[in-house]
Structure formats: structure tokens, C-alpha cells
Design brief:
Layout lengths: L4 H12 L5 H8 L3 H10 L17 H10 L5 H10 L6 H11 L18 E14 L2 E12 L5 E6 L4 H15 L5 E4 L6 E5 L2 E4 L1 H10 L2 E4 L9 H15 L7 H16 L3 E2 L2 E5 H8 L15 E6 L5 E4 L2 E4 L8 E6 L3 E6 L2 E7 L7 E2 L2 H8 L3 H15 L3 H10 L4 H15 L1 H13 L5 H15 L13 H4 L9 H8 L18 H17 L2 H6 L1
Parallel strand pairs: 1-4, 4-7, 12-16
Antiparallel strand pairs: 1-2, 2-3, 5-6, 8-9, 10-13, 11-12, 13-14, 14-15
Helix pairs in contact: 2-3, 13-15, 14-15, 15-16, 15-17, 16-17
Amino acid sequence: MAVTPELKAHILRYYHVEQWRIGTIARQLKVHHGTVERALRQAGLPRIGSVRASNIDAYLPFILETLKKFPDLRASRLYAMLKERGYQGGPDHFRHLISHHRPRPLPEAYLRLVTLIGEQGQIDWGHFGHLQIGRAKRPLMAFVAVLSWSRRIFLRFSLDARMESFLRGHVQAFQDWGGLPRVLLYDNLKSAVLERQGDAIRFSPALLAFAEHYHFEPRPVAVARGNQKGRVERAIRYIRDNFFCARTFTDLDDLNAQADAWVNGSADDRLCPQDKTLKVRQAFVQEQPCLRSLPANPYPVEERVVVKVGKTPYVRFDLNDYSVPHTQVCKTLTVLADATHLRIVDGLLVLASHVRCYDKGQQIEIESHIKDLVERKAQARAQRGMGRLSQGVPASVELLNQAGARGESLGSITCALLRLVDRYGATEVQTAVLAALARKVPHPNAVRLALESQREARQAPPAVVVQLSEKARLRDTVIHAQPLASYDQLSSAGPAEPGAVSEVAPPMPSAATNASTHSTQSKTTSKRSPSDESKK
């Protein structure tokens, strides 16, 4: 119970003037006796009531000396030390007694930190739970940057805390401010400080290269000194309470759009702590001309990952597979990714460009990559044919299931249905497949009859199919005509004498001529009668 000034006045008057005991005062004022004792102690009176002897009294010198040397020693360890020295009390009461004798640290006084206009900014990450995207559970991180003088906030949410996202937040903050301060303060986060031993600090090489490009000084704060980076710490708490609490959003882009509206709205309308006569919006207008100008070219902040392509034309990046041309299998490529897109390159050659997916276990494909591979792999063609058929004609899945149950060849049925799709279109085939299923005839012939019925109902002409040989060697063969003048000379020369040598040597016949001659001889032989054979 809180001791009000009126209650405290009554307690002191009854105790000093009326000489009432503590229990009497408590009963008459209907308060706890501890409240009466607290009011008397606050008035400067010594300990009230008689002091009873305790088992711990004989060990107090040892306890005080031990706590003086080791102020953070736990009560459980101190109790074990006293048990070895003969203490008979219980551990719970001992812990309560030790709390009265443990030395309290002296409160530390801090100076109010004042920064020059345009001199300093503070950077930090904030964790805001997780975001479920499909089957992937991604951490929802907030990159927060604050200008120390005007308290202008930059807020950007991302799905990771990688170094590339950290630097990308810097670039976006600099572009939003139209400049950057001379010094940026960081906590001891791994994105900025890799290792620290006292005042010896090893910065991240990527952060040093980034600072070299924008010409600012990265400065880490001291360990366990939250007051040195209090502006960004309070900004994160302000974001949690004033913006994120009870906030609903559809996706990350929607959340960032709401964050931009909040920063430019209510966050800029609050009073500037540096100058209470100004709002943050007005203070930023004064600070912006004092910021350092940005370089002509922004720093590249794409994520760069070296990947290995296996036997399938895909590369694995951030829990998903992205397609590449099939000619790149078993090679080492490079993935360059930003927040929305990624490129797969081989040196300076860009092989593929995809929209980045934050789901898990997805296959992101470019149709031309798979189409080229399908044309070279018969097995892949069959598998892809079923996939194409199921996407264009969903009812074909049930037809294939029923046909498989009857022992039909699924490959031939798939090829037949795909030919019908190419001839009539996916919509017409879908209707025909439903008609075939309704008749309980899961066969391409039933689908073909249904398509012809639909065509006759529309009074459309029949579709003409041009079929060419699938073998390019036969389809593209060029037949050259052979001259027959030499054979005419042989027929006009007459019969040759025995032992004479012909002056005209017939040319070597071509393969086509040999085939024609062989065919003619075969026909002549077949026309001979049995009498001719006997005469021979």
C-alpha cells in the first residue's frame, strides 16, 4: 500500500504523541503493520521493534568480507560455504537474509550527449518476430537509421540480416536523406565489428570498403554503453510501440509502404528533443543542407554467391532452385541477387535473370531453358508432356488415372492427347476429356470423337495436319540427278569381241544409281520363267 502524506502524518502523530504501538496503529487505520513500519523508517526512525537473534549473526563477518571481495557471488554458493562451516539454517531463508547484506552498486551519472548538426547518425537492427512465406519461416528484421541532431528516422524491413541487406539499408537511408553525416555509430553487431578486445577493434572489410566509398567514419560504441547509442535504441522502441504494435499487412512490400507513410507522417510530426521549439520535420529541413553530398555512383550492394550446377539445369540459392541453360550443367557460376531479382552469370555473360523467391523448395524456371532440354531428352519430353498436359487440360489427370487402372499405356495416351491439344486447343480438349469421362471411356479415341462432334456442331472445317519425318537427315536430304550419256554410248557401241578391252569406261555409279540398278535387276530376275533358267 502506498504511504500518502495524510496517512504518514496520522501514523507519526499516533506513534509520537499518543504513544501507540505499531500493531495498534495498524488496526485502527486498517493498514498492514509493514506499511506502518515503512512510514516510520521513511521518517528517519531506527529499526522498529525488538531485534531477534538469528543463526546467521555468527557468520556475518565472514559473509560481509566474502561479499566485499566477490560482490556477484550467488547465494547458493555462499550457502554451501556456510554449511561447511556449521550453518544450520535453510537455503530459502538464507537467500532472503543475504539480500539485505549484499552490497548495492553505486548509481552512475551520465553526461547529456549533444551533437553538432549534420555530424552524426546511429545505425542498428531491430528484430520483429518472423514472417511465414509459404513453407519458409523468415526472420522479420528492421534496419533503423537515425540522424542524431534532427532525430529523423529511416525504417526499412527485410527478411534477413545479411551484410548485403545491411549495406543496402545504408544506401536507401542516404538516398532518403539526400546526404549522409560524417560519423555513423554502430553497436557491436557482427555486420560492423568482427572482433573486439577492449579498445582493439577489427571492423568488417565490407563495411570499411563501403565507408571508403561514401567517405564517412564508422565508429562503434563502447561495450555495455547503451547511452552512447540511445537515440537509435529509443527509435526502435518508438517503432515497436507506435508503429508495429497491432499492425496488419499483406506482405513485405505493404509493410515497407506503411513504414514510409508513418515516417513521413506521425514520426516527423513529433517534437525534436534537441530543440523543443521545432518538430522533427522542421529540424530535418535545417540539418539536410549540412549533410555530406552523395557520390555520383552508388555502391553495389548485390549479394554475390558462387554456386555449382549439378546434372540438372538448376542452381540452389536461398532455399530455392533457379533454372539455367542446359549447356551450363556441371559448371561453377555466380549468383548476383538484390532484394527483388537475381542474375546468374558466367564471368561477364548473363545466363539467366529471375524474380527472387522467398519461399522454400520452389523451382523457378524460364520456359526456354526447359524447352531446349526437352527437345534433346526423350524421357524428359514424356515427363514434361504430362506436366504440360496437366496444366493445360486439368481433367486429363483423371483420364490418365483411369487409363492406368485399366492397364493402358500412359505414354501413348499422353502423346495422343498432346497432338489433340496442338490441333484443337487446350479449351476444346478439356471439354472433350470431360465428355469422355462422363461416358466412362478413358481413351484418346473417345476424346477425338468428342472433338469432332464439337467441330461439326460449330460447322467448322476439319483441321489439316502436316506430318513430316522426325529424322532431320531424311527430311533435309538433297537428291542430285546423275548424267546417263555414258550408258547411251555403251548401248550404241555393239557387242564386244572376246578378249577386247572397251575404250569407254563407264563412270562409277552413285549410291542412288546402284540402288536403282539393283532394283531393276531384281525385277528382271523375278520375271524370268523356269524355262529360261533351264536354258541358262
